[in-house]
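Quick one: co-fold with magnesium ion.
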Amino acid sequence: MQHIIEMVGVSKIYPGGCAALKDINVKIGKGEFVFLVGPTGAGKSTFLKLLFREELPTRGQIFINGKNITRLKPKEVPYLRRRLGVVFQDFRLLPQKTVYENVAFAMEVIEASPREIRRRVPKVIEMVGLSHKMNSRPHELSGGEQQRAALARALVNNPDVIIADEPTGNLDPDTSWEIMKLLDEINKKGTTLIVATHAKELVDAMKKRVLQLEDGRLVRDEERGVYCCET
Amino acid sequence: MKLRTIRYFFREAFVNLFRNGWMSLASIGAVASALIIFGSFLMISINFDYIAKNVESQVEITAYVEDSVDKLKINQIEYNIKSIDGVKEVVFVSKEQALEEFKKQVGEELLEGIENPLPNSFRVKVETPQEVAGVAERIQKIDGIEEVKYGKGVVEKLFKITYWMRLVGLAVMAIFAAISVFIISNTIKITVFSRRREISIMKYIGATDWFVRWPFLIEGMLLGFTGSLIAIALLATGYSYLYDMVKMNVPMISLLPIEEFYDYSLGLLLMGTVLGAFGSGFSIRKFLRV
Ligand SMILES: Nc1ncnc2c1ncn2[C@@H]1O[C@H](COP(=O)(O)OP(=O)(O)OP(=O)(O)O)[C@@H](O)[C@H]1O
Ligand SMILES: [Mg+2]
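Sure, here it is.
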C-alpha cells in the first residue's frame, strides 16, 4: 500500500518548553480511516496541526504524498493545504457568508471557474445534508449544522486527505453518529481520513485503525481498534 | 492571475469598505487630516521657496565705470563682464539714462542747470543668486571699473534666511509624511485586526498570501485616494482664499499661483493612494504568517 502520510522521528516542543509530541513514527496509507485518541493534552491536535503546517515539528520529517513538508517554502504551503481538507473543532466558518458562500469561497480561493463552483457547491452541500440551510449564515445554524458546513467546505475541492479535529466535540450522540457515518461514506469514496476524537462509543463501533497518544507518545497502533483497552 | 480573480479582489475591497463603514470613514478622515496637515506645510514651504526665489532674482550688481573711459573701452568692458562665468544679463546704463531716472525720482526742477554728476554703469544679473559675491569681485578687477555695489551683507543675510526656510520646510514635510504613514497604517491595522480571523481562515483553506493581500491593498488604496481627494478639495479652497487675501492686503508679496497648486495636488493624490497601499500592506504582514 502506498503511504500518503509518513512521520519519521517527529517531536514537537512548543516555545514554552512543553513537549507535545515525542518521537512519533507512523505511516498512513492511501484511503485509510484513522482515529487519533488519547486523553486531553496528549498531543492529538498538535499531531494534526503538523500535517497542514499550522505548526512545524521541532525534530523529524513529515512526508505527504512522498513530499517532505517540513522543507516547504512559505510560498508552497497554500498548495499543500489545498490537498488537505481540514475540519476545525471550532468550524472556522466565515460569519458574514452563507453556507453556500462559505463552501464556494474555498473554491474561489483556488481560482476555480464560476461554472464549476455553481455545479459543485450544491452537490457537496447536499452530500452533507444541508441543502435546506444553504442560504443561512453560521450563527443561524446549530452546532451539528455548522459541523456539516465545515465538512462541506473541507470536501469541496476533492482533497486527498480529510483531517478532522474532534468533529463531534459538542454534539449529541445521534448527531455525532450521523457525522461519523458521513465521514465513513467519504472514506469509502477513496479519501483518506484522520479524525481526532474523544468519542469512545463511536470509535468502538466503527472498528477502524486507532492511534493512541499519551503524553506525546504513540502508545498504541491497532487495526480495527477500540477507544481504550485498559479502562 | 485570472480576470475573475481581479474582479473578486475589487468586489471584496468595495464590500469590505462598506461593511466596515465607520472604520472606513475613520480611515478616510485620518488620511484626509494627515494630508491636510502635510499639504499645508507643503504649501507653506513651497511658497517660502517661491518668495525666496523672487527676492533672490531681484538681487543685481551695479558696476560703475570710471569717467575717463571712452566708448570703445566701454564696449570692451561689457564684453569682459559678459564672459565671466555665471553672468546672465548685462545692461549698460549711460550717464544720461541714469540722470533721467534720477530726475524722475527726485523731480526735474531740482537738478536744473547742474552738470551730470552720475557715472556710466552696468547692471549685471547672475544665473544663481549665490554667485553674486564672486561675480562682483571679478567685475571689480576689470580695468576701467571704479566701483561695484551689490548690497554686500544684505544679500548674504537674505541667502541665510532663505536657506533656513527651505531646510525647516523640508524637515517639517518629512516629519508629517512619517506621521501620515503612521496614522494610515494604524487605522488600516484596526480594519485588518478586526478581520484577522477571516485572514487566518483563508490561509488555512489554501489561499496564497497575494490572494489575501490584494483586496486589502485595494481597500487601502481606495481609502487613501478618497482621503486625499477630500484633503485636496479643502486645501484648494483654503489656499485660493489665502491667495486672494494676501493679494489684496499685502500686494508686495506674491504667492505661488493657484494653478501651480493643482500640479502638487496630483502628487498628493498619488501619495495618499500609495500611503494607503503601504499602510494596509504593512499591517497585514503579521496576520499572513499562519
Ligand atoms: N501553541 C501552544 N503553545 C504551547 N503549548 C501548547 C500549544 N498548543 C498546545 N500546547 C501544549 O501541548 C500539549 C498537547 O496539546 P494538544 O492540543 O495537542 O492536545 P490534545 O491531545 O489535542 O488535547 P485535547 O484533547 O484537549 O484537545 C498540551 O500540554 C498543551 O498545553
Ligand atoms: Mg485538541
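If it helps, The mean pLDDT of chain B is 83.
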